[in-house]
Amino acid sequence: MATxxxxxxxxxxxxxxxxxxxxxxxxxxxxxxxxxxxxxxLDLYEQDMTPIVLGEKLILNVPLWxxxxxENLPAPALIPLDESNSExxxxxKNFMETVFLYIDDVADGSEGDDIGDDE
Length: 119
Fold this sequence. Notes:
By secondary structure, this protein is mostly beta strands. It has one domain (about 5-105). Helix content is about 0%, strand content about 40%. Strands 2-3-4-5 form a four-stranded antiparallel sheet, with no helix packed on it. The protein is globular and about 35 Å long.
Protein backbone atom coordinates (compact mmCIF):
# COMPACT_ATOMS: atom_id res chain seq x y z
CA MET A 1 0.00 0.00 0.00
CA ALA A 2 1.34 3.40 -0.95
CA THR A 3 2.16 5.69 1.95
CA UNK A 4 2.35 8.91 -0.05
CA UNK A 5 0.02 10.82 -2.34
CA UNK A 6 1.07 11.10 -5.97
CA UNK A 7 0.37 13.58 -8.72
CA UNK A 8 -1.72 11.92 -11.44
CA UNK A 9 -0.64 12.60 -15.03
CA UNK A 10 -2.08 11.31 -18.28
CA UNK A 11 1.09 10.57 -20.19
CA UNK A 12 -0.90 10.56 -23.45
CA UNK A 13 -1.55 14.31 -22.89
CA UNK A 14 2.09 15.29 -22.29
CA UNK A 15 3.24 18.03 -22.57
CA UNK A 16 0.75 18.87 -19.86
CA UNK A 17 0.49 22.02 -17.74
CA UNK A 18 -1.74 22.67 -14.73
CA UNK A 19 -2.06 24.50 -11.43
CA UNK A 20 -1.09 22.52 -8.36
CA UNK A 21 -1.51 23.37 -4.69
CA UNK A 22 1.36 22.25 -2.50
CA UNK A 23 1.48 23.19 1.15
CA UNK A 24 0.04 26.72 1.27
CA UNK A 25 1.12 27.80 -2.22
CA UNK A 26 -0.17 27.37 -5.76
CA UNK A 27 2.32 26.49 -8.49
CA UNK A 28 2.13 25.79 -12.20
CA UNK A 29 3.64 22.42 -13.18
CA UNK A 30 4.46 21.46 -16.75
CA UNK A 31 5.59 17.94 -17.52
CA UNK A 32 7.51 17.25 -20.71
CA UNK A 33 8.65 14.07 -22.44
CA UNK A 34 11.94 13.73 -24.34
CA UNK A 35 11.49 10.92 -26.84
CA UNK A 36 15.17 10.82 -27.88
CA UNK A 37 16.33 9.65 -24.44
CA UNK A 38 12.99 8.33 -23.12
CA UNK A 39 12.87 10.69 -20.15
CA UNK A 40 10.55 13.17 -18.47
CA UNK A 41 11.26 16.64 -17.12
CA LEU A 42 9.28 19.08 -15.04
CA ASP A 43 9.04 22.86 -15.25
CA LEU A 44 7.95 24.72 -12.14
CA TYR A 45 6.44 28.20 -12.23
CA GLU A 46 4.97 30.58 -9.72
CA GLN A 47 1.24 31.17 -10.16
CA ASP A 48 1.95 34.24 -12.35
CA MET A 49 4.07 32.03 -14.69
CA THR A 50 7.40 33.33 -13.37
CA PRO A 51 9.80 30.39 -13.86
CA ILE A 52 11.30 28.86 -10.73
CA VAL A 53 13.03 25.82 -12.27
CA LEU A 54 12.89 24.64 -15.88
CA GLY A 55 13.80 21.24 -17.29
CA GLU A 56 14.28 19.29 -14.05
CA LYS A 57 14.74 15.66 -15.17
CA LEU A 58 12.76 13.01 -13.30
CA ILE A 59 15.32 10.58 -11.87
CA LEU A 60 14.05 7.54 -10.00
CA ASN A 61 14.26 7.89 -6.19
CA VAL A 62 15.82 11.38 -6.36
CA PRO A 63 13.80 14.32 -4.99
CA LEU A 64 13.20 17.02 -7.58
CA TRP A 65 15.24 20.19 -7.08
CA UNK A 66 17.34 18.40 -4.46
CA UNK A 67 20.50 20.23 -5.51
CA UNK A 68 18.91 23.69 -5.89
CA UNK A 69 18.69 26.32 -3.17
CA UNK A 70 15.73 28.62 -3.85
CA GLU A 71 13.26 29.91 -1.27
CA ASN A 72 10.49 29.76 -3.90
CA LEU A 73 10.70 25.97 -4.21
CA PRO A 74 7.78 24.07 -2.73
CA ALA A 75 7.95 21.98 0.39
CA PRO A 76 7.35 19.06 0.72
CA ALA A 77 9.52 17.37 -1.90
CA LEU A 78 8.31 15.66 -5.07
CA ILE A 79 10.00 12.32 -5.74
CA PRO A 80 9.65 9.89 -8.68
CA LEU A 81 9.33 6.49 -6.97
CA ASP A 82 8.56 2.90 -7.78
CA GLU A 83 7.25 1.48 -4.51
CA SER A 84 7.59 -2.07 -5.85
CA ASN A 85 11.34 -1.48 -6.37
CA SER A 86 11.23 -3.22 -9.75
CA GLU A 87 12.34 -0.29 -11.95
CA UNK A 88 15.78 1.27 -12.42
CA UNK A 89 14.80 4.50 -14.21
CA UNK A 90 11.78 6.57 -15.23
CA UNK A 91 10.63 5.69 -18.77
CA UNK A 92 7.54 6.23 -20.89
CA LYS A 93 6.61 2.58 -20.42
CA ASN A 94 6.70 2.62 -16.60
CA PHE A 95 5.65 6.22 -15.81
CA MET A 96 2.17 6.21 -14.24
CA GLU A 97 2.24 2.39 -14.35
CA THR A 98 4.78 1.48 -11.66
CA VAL A 99 6.60 4.82 -11.31
CA PHE A 100 4.67 7.79 -9.92
CA LEU A 101 5.58 11.33 -8.91
CA TYR A 102 4.97 11.22 -5.16
CA ILE A 103 4.51 14.06 -2.71
CA ASP A 104 6.80 13.36 0.22
CA ASP A 105 4.42 14.73 2.85
CA VAL A 106 3.93 11.67 5.04
CA ALA A 107 5.87 11.24 8.27
CA ASP A 108 7.84 8.02 8.64
CA GLY A 109 5.54 5.22 9.77
CA SER A 110 2.36 6.99 8.60
CA GLU A 111 0.09 5.87 5.81
CA GLY A 112 -2.21 7.86 3.51
CA ASP A 113 -4.40 7.41 0.49
CA ASP A 114 -3.27 7.94 -3.09
CA ILE A 115 -4.76 10.95 -4.83
CA GLY A 116 -4.75 9.04 -8.09
CA ASP A 117 -5.97 5.73 -6.65
CA ASP A 118 -9.25 4.70 -8.29
CA GLU A 119 -9.98 1.84 -5.90
